[in-house]
């Protein structure tokens, strides 16, 4: 068999019943040894790679559609299509397929789609053709029953389709329809509706080509107006002929293109409006109709795209000042429809389409259109702009950066978009929401390109903050000059909420650009004016903006907030909200809770030093008391640097322990033999053994005196919240007034947890190795000292008189063990 190469596109049907373009190449047929049979081969015209290798299976059903399409199923739910550039190429490949399957090339389908039962197959084979009743008025009921009974069986459906096609039955039915309509024969019209609906479900391209021809399509639509389920017929023809008008804004010289546009519009109307919504079982029966519309749209876009004179005239008239408003409105609507059609194209074809529009100057044209007063024209231009931004935001960014070198800021395309967002007259701001989404896409660093020579993110953001940000923030700045918003109506509040949403996005995704802008323009102070708005959603937007800034934990922002006392409006809003438990209350508390949990030291000190009086009575949450405690701990560290250094050292030694660790160490302590502890064992780090007792005890004694004054308040706080997992209520340690310290544990007063910091013999405690140095206290427990800082609610009971020095030197451990066992 000789090879015949023809130019084709390969399509596959995806899960959404849409055709995906797999590439363009040349098709041939030939014997493939690996597949053991004659196969269809498609090699890409770009690089010669194999796009398709499909064996012509004798049992596979191939369909020929629209003279240039061959469609078949390789496996369940995997449909393929070859779209030929020339009819002759399609005919040759079709002949090869029919030759392999032993079929007559005049047929449009080579096999039955679904296997029938043997009995049904026998019945159908016994009658090789399906005989249709005469196309007469009194036989319409019989014909309707025949069509309805044939639809469930693929073989009978095929025979019915062949009979309808070969006898020219559709034209006869349409003549009968005109007679019934003239006679107002409702019964006959209802039968014709059922018959015509059934013919659609035959899913056959040859029948569609007859039905959708110029002389037949309006009568077909007429048949579908008389649904028996409706009391009155629909008026689809009246709409298509009187209401829907085809406006040729630019003369289309190609009659084939014009006819294709008319046909596609009407068929799309039939699919969307005329035919009833198909059931689950009927949906696949209309796949050929979907394919018919899809390939028509692809053809239309391709033919228009190739007509350079047409596109040149279109853009010339769009930008010509002499073009009247009505004409320009039509031109913009045509361009919008053109872009909408392009969404059916596959990615590589869509690339070529938008590249063509870009070369023709679509962005400068849109800039002119957006500057016009006509709201409808601007709305259509916005839709076109959204197609461009969604397709390729980098192309739009490059254009606006280039035009900024020649034009003033006021007429830049991106500033026109911002102005239309600000000036949207819709009470619900539908257009403004759409435009804000486009701006967000344009300033999103995630879709910006970075190459070796330039970084789009740096260049565009520098441009945006220099030329556009002042336009975006103008309504915000104009409305926040006083302590309350100047205008607080619903539409203004909605607009400001949109602007704040975009600014919040910038805080999250931009770095120094937005930081410099906020600090230099004092934006946050202006935004917080909106917390006084009567619209809760706007006040919450302002809080969200500040919360995003605090969440960055950036000291530049923190110093800016403290320098300008920017928590003041937040606390005012909190107090004005009163005892109401609402979103405002929760949002403000969460902001302060974040500062506490993340231990943002500068903000903690600022809040307590400036606003504690206003917040100290809030006791239904522990957030503010917890902040106060954080603040006091910071002060203690500043006042007692030695204490702070001991904390850091012990933190690096086993200070943090979970419950299981404490239990294990306690068990080890009880099981350990006294003799296991050698006299010279060094547990305290060498640097700490040299510290004098007085140096250690003086700051601790002062600390304890201060803590006793606040004892009751802190017990309440610490009883409700655990600080960093260090709380241990059973850990009791008290000091005598002397310069020496010792551990004693009478059962009634201080029950000392074995294994806790400061316990004799615990791995982290230096108590057991202190006997060799007279100048060192009996227990120099850094664990105990840190415990004093971390557990200010320890018992204030005085310890009993310490044991005599000699006795404690000889054997300090057994009494402690005994006391622990007895406790």
Automatic annotation (TrEMBL):
<feature type="compositionally biased region" description="Basic and acidic residues">
    <location>
        <begin position="703"/>
        <end position="718"/>
    </location>
</feature>
<dbReference type="InterPro" id="IPR055236">
    <property type="entry name" value="EVH1_PP4R3"/>
</dbReference>
<dbReference type="GO" id="GO:0072542">
    <property type="term" value="F:protein phosphatase activator activity"/>
</dbReference>
<feature type="compositionally biased region" description="Low complexity">
    <location>
        <begin position="768"/>
        <end position="789"/>
    </location>
</feature>
<protein>
    <recommendedName>
        <fullName>Serine/threonine-protein phosphatase 4 regulatory subunit 3</fullName>
    </recommendedName>
</protein>
<dbReference type="Pfam" id="PF22972">
    <property type="entry name" value="EVH1_PP4R3"/>
</dbReference>
<dbReference type="InterPro" id="IPR011993">
    <property type="entry name" value="PH-like_dom_sf"/>
</dbReference>
<dbReference type="GO" id="GO:0005654">
    <property type="term" value="C:nucleoplasm"/>
</dbReference>
<dbReference type="GO" id="GO:0006974">
    <property type="term" value="P:DNA damage response"/>
</dbReference>
<dbReference type="InterPro" id="IPR006887">
    <property type="entry name" value="P4R3-like_central_dom"/>
</dbReference>
<dbReference type="InterPro" id="IPR051137">
    <property type="entry name" value="PP4R3-like"/>
</dbReference>
<dbReference type="Pfam" id="PF04802">
    <property type="entry name" value="PP4R3"/>
</dbReference>
<comment type="similarity">
    <text>Belongs to the SMEK family.</text>
</comment>
<comment type="function">
    <text>Regulatory subunit of serine/threonine-protein phosphatase 4.</text>
</comment>
<feature type="compositionally biased region" description="Acidic residues">
    <location>
        <begin position="791"/>
        <end position="808"/>
    </location>
</feature>
<feature type="domain" description="Serine/threonine-protein phosphatase 4 regulatory subunit 3-like central">
    <location>
        <begin position="143"/>
        <end position="633"/>
    </location>
</feature>
<dbReference type="InterPro" id="IPR016024">
    <property type="entry name" value="ARM-type_fold"/>
</dbReference>
<dbReference type="GO" id="GO:0030289">
    <property type="term" value="C:protein phosphatase 4 complex"/>
</dbReference>
<feature type="domain" description="PP4R3 EVH1-like">
    <location>
        <begin position="5"/>
        <end position="101"/>
    </location>
</feature>
<feature type="compositionally biased region" description="Low complexity">
    <location>
        <begin position="730"/>
        <end position="756"/>
    </location>
</feature>
<feature type="region of interest" description="Disordered">
    <location>
        <begin position="673"/>
        <end position="823"/>
    </location>
</feature>
């Amino acid at each position: 068999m000789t090879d015949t190469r023809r130019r084709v596109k390969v399509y596959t049907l995806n899960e959404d019943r849409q055709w995906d373009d797999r590439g363009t190449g040349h098709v041939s047929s030939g014997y493939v040894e690996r597949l053991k049979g004659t196969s269809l081969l498609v090699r890409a015209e770009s690089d010669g790679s194999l796009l398709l290798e499909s064996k012509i299976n004798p049992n596979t059903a191939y369909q020929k559609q629209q003279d240039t399409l061959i469609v078949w199923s390789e496996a369940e739910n995997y449909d393929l299509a070859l779209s030929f550039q020339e009819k002759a190429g399609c005919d040759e490949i079709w002949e090869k397929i029919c030759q392999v399957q032993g079929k007559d090339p005049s047929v449009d389908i080579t096999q039955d789609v679904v296997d029938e039962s043997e009995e049904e197959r026998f019945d159908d084979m016994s009658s090789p053709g399906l005989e249709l009743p005469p196309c007469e008025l009194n036989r319409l009921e019989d014909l309707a029953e025949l069509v309805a009974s044939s639809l469930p069986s693929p073989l009978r459906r095929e025979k019915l389709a062949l009979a309808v096609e070969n006898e020219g039955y559709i034209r006869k039915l349409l003549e009968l329809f005109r007679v019934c309509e003239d006679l107002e024969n409702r019964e006959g019209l209802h039968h014709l509706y059922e018959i015509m609906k059934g013919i659609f479900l035959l899913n056959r391209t040859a029948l569609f080509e007859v039905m959708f021809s110029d002389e037949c399509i309006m009568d077909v639509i007429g048949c579908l107006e008389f649904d028996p389920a409706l009391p009155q017929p629909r008026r689809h023809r009246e709409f298509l002929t009187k209401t829907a008008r085809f406006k040729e804004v630019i003369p289309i010289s190609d009659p084939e293109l014009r006819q294709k546009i008319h046909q596609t519009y009407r068929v799309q109307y039939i699919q969307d409006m005329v035919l009833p919504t198909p059931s689950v079982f009927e949906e696949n029966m209309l796949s050929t109709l979907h394919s018919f519309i899809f390939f028509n749209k692809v053809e239309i876009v391709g033919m228009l795209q190739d007509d350079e004179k047409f596109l040149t005239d279109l853009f010339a008239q769009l930008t010509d000042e002499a073009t009247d408003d009505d004409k320009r409105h039509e031109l913009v609507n045509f361009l919008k429809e053109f872009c909408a059609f392009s969404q059916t194209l596959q990615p590589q074809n869509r690339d070529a389409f938008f590249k063509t529009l870009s070369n023709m100057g679509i962005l400068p044209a849109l800039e002119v259109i957006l500057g016009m007063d006509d709201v409808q024209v601007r709305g259509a231009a916005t839709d076109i702009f959204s197609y461009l931004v969604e397709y390729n935001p980098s192309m739009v960014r490059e254009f606006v950066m280039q035009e900024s070198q020649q034009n003033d800021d006021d007429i830049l395309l991106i500033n026109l978009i911002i102005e239309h967002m600000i000036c949207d007259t819709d009470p619900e701001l539908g257009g403004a929401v759409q435009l804000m989404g486009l701006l967000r896409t344009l300033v999103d660093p995630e879709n910006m390109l970075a190459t070796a020579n330039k970084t789009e993110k740096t260049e565009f953001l520098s441009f945006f903050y220099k030329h556009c940000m002042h336009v975006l923030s103008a309504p915000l700045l104009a409305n926040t000059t006083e302590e309350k918003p100047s205008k607080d109506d619903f539409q203004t509040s909605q607009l400001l909420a949109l602007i704040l949403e975009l600014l919040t996005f910038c805080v999250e995704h931009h770095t120094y650009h937005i930081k410099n802008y906020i600090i230099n323009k004092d934006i946050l102070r202006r935004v917080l004016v909106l917390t006084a708005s009567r619209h809760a959603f706007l006040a919450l937007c302002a809080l969200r903006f500040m919360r995003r800034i605090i969440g960055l934990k950036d000291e530049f922002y923190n110093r800016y907030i403290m320098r300008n006392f920017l928590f003041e409006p937040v606390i005012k809003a909190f107090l004005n909200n009163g005892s109401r438990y609402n979103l405002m209350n929760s949002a403000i508390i969460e902001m302060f809770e974040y500062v506490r949990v993340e231990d943002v030291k500068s903000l903690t000190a600022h809040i307590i030093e400036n606003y504690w009086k206003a917040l100290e009575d809030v006791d239904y949450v522990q957030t503010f008391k917890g902040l106060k405690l954080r603040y006091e701990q910071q002060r203690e560290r500043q006042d007692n640097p030695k204490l702070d250094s001991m904390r850091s050292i012990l933190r690096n030694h086993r200070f943090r322990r979970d419950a299981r660790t404490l239990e294990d160490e306690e068990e080890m302590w009880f099981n350990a033999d006294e003799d296991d502890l050698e006299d010279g064992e060094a547990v305290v780090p060498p640097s700490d053994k040299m510290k004098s007792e007085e140096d250690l005890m003086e700051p601790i004694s002062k600390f304890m005196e201060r803590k006793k004054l606040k004892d009751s308040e802190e017990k309440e706080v610490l009883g409700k919240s655990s600080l960093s997992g260090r709380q241990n209520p059973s850990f009791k340690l008290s000091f005598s007034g002397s310069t020496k310290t010792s551990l004693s544990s009478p059962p009634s007063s201080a029950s000392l947890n074995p294994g806790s910091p400061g316990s004799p013999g615990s791995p982290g405690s230096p108590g057991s190795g202190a006997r060799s140095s007279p100048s060192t206290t009996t227990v120099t427990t850094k664990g105990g000292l840190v415990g004093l800082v971390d557990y200010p609610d320890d018992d204030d009971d005085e310890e009993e008189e310490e044991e005599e020095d000699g006795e404690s030197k000889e054997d300090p451990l057994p009494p402690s063990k005994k006391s622990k066992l007895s406790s």
